[in-house]
Amino acid sequence: MLGSTLLLTLATLAGLVAGFGREWLLIADWGAGAKTDAFLVAMFLPEAIRVMLAGGLLSAAMLPLWQRADTQIQPLWLSGQIAHWLAAGLGLALAIAAAAPLLIGWIGPGLAAADRERGVEVLIWLAFTIPGFLTQAVLTVPLQAAGRFLLSGLGSLLFNLPPVVYLGWAGKQADEIWLAQSFLVGSALMALVLFPSAWGFGWRPWLAGAKGEFAQVWRQLWPLLLSSGASQGLALLERLTASLLGEGSVTLVNLARKLVNIPLIALMGLNQVLLGKMSGEGEQSRLRLMQRGLSICTRLTLLPVAGLMLISPLLVTKLLPAGLSQGPLPLLLALFALSIVFGSWNALLARYFYAGADTRTPLLCELSGSGVQAVLLLALPAYLGIWGLP
Predict the structure, then answer these.
(1) How far is CA 254 from the centre of its chain?
(2) Maximum distance among all Cα pairs of the chain, rounded to whole angstroms
(3) Is residue 74 part of a domain?
(4) Among 60, 82, 242, 283, which has the highest number of CB atoms less than 10 A from its own CB?
(5) 167 belongs to a structural domain
(6) Which long-range contacts (CB under 8 A, 24 or more apart) does 29-32 make?
(7) What coarse category fits the chief subcellular location reported for this protein (predicted)?
(8) Residue 148, SS3?
(9) Rounded to an integer, what distance in angstroms lies between the CA atom of residue 23 and that of residue 250?
């Protein structure tokens, strides 16, 4: 398990480095101001969908179904699912593009009118990253079932590489629309690199799956979607509240979240390996794997939490553009770090239930916790300002 986890974690960390480089270059080129805030508001919805899928939203629903399917049926099943989710992604992209003015107004109510208009233009382009995200998520399912985690773990790196190259090349002259288009290229790369492997598993573009197979996936997916949606709803509420706290607040909160999420996203490798190993196992075997995973997870998270809390001012000074260490970011980072251990436990425990085809128990836990957090997010910033967000 550790060998597979290590390979996937290394691939994920490479993507995290590219993602952190993207954030660093964005602030270095544009500063922590209104322009960056507007782009991050436009980026929120596509990025939320990508993060949910990277966390195993589709694979958790589809892995048990793929493993139960007869080997002769699997090529038809895979081909049908790819076509179905590509079409779903295109439909969702068109809907988001059409509703872009409304969505930008909801996510960033504190943006100035000119920044809001630019955010709408950016979101229209970014919406069309979604078909690539969904297709990539489907293509990873047979790879994970076969224990081949490395290639599927390169998605974040491939997605972030084109914008990093563009921001590094354009510098302070970087244009929001060109940057959005570079993200579109990255989303296409995520899926394209997996198609040769899909061909090996029997995918053919002219094959079609049965409607009942799509219905099975959707039945498994709805509880997962509601659970992930609750988590992203909290992130949306946090982004909305930050936009009302003044220029640059969205950028600072986003950057603190990015830094804190690095250990959590790195642990997705362990979670996905565990999901692949637990799927199809008996209850006792799943329980033993889950206990082992919790032990590894706790040891891996305690050190990053302590480190982030103790050296956050030094970390901000050394790793981020000049000037940010004098603001609220170091303390924000230290406060957000407390969530790492609990977040890692939640993700791993959820996969224990997913492997047994139980998607409802994690949903109930997620919704109850999210409800408490939402109430606190609405109340505390009114009295504590930006310090109420962590």
Answers:
(1) 13
(2) 62
(3) yes
(4) 60
(5) yes
(6) 29/167, 29/170, 29/171, 29/172, 29/174, 30/172, 30/174, 32/248, 32/251, 32/252, 32/255, 32/324
(7) membrane
(8) coil
(9) 13
Give the Cα separation of 50 and 56 in Å (integer): 10
In a domain, 361, yes or no: yes
Rounded to whole angstroms, how far apart are CA atoms 276 and 284?
16
3-state secondary structure 208-249: CCCHHHHHHHHHHHHHHHHHHHHHHHHHHHHHHHHHCCCCCH
* pTM, 2 dp: 0.75
190-195 — which CB contacts under 8 Å span 24+ positions? 190/132, 190/133, 190/136, 190/154, 190/155, 190/158, 190/159, 191/132, 191/135, 191/136, 191/139, 193/151, 193/154, 193/158, 194/136, 194/139, 194/140, 194/143, 194/151, 194/152, 195/139
Contact status, residue 16 vs residue 265, Cβ threshold 8 Å: yes
Residue 360 domain boundaries: 2-381
Reference 6, options 143, 141, 149, 159; nearest CA is: 149
In a domain? residue 187: yes
- What is the C-alpha to C-alpha distance for residues 317 and 330, in angstroms, rounded to an integer? 9
Number of domains in the chain: 1
- Reading the chain (390 residues) residue by residue, the pLDDT tens digits are 445 556 666 777 788 778 878 888 888 778 777 788 889 889 989 998 998 888 778 887 888 788 887 778 888 888 888 999 999 999 999 999 999 999 999 888 888 888 899 999 999 999 999 999 999 999 998 888 777 767 777 888 899 999 999 999 988 898 999 999 999 999 999 999 999 988 888 888 887 766 657 888 888 888 778 777 777 777 777 777 776 766 666 776 777 777 766 666 666 666 666 666 666 666 777 777 777 777 777 777 777 777 767 766 666 666 666 666 666 667 776 777 777 777 777 777 777 777 776 767 777 877 787 777 777 777 767 666 666 666
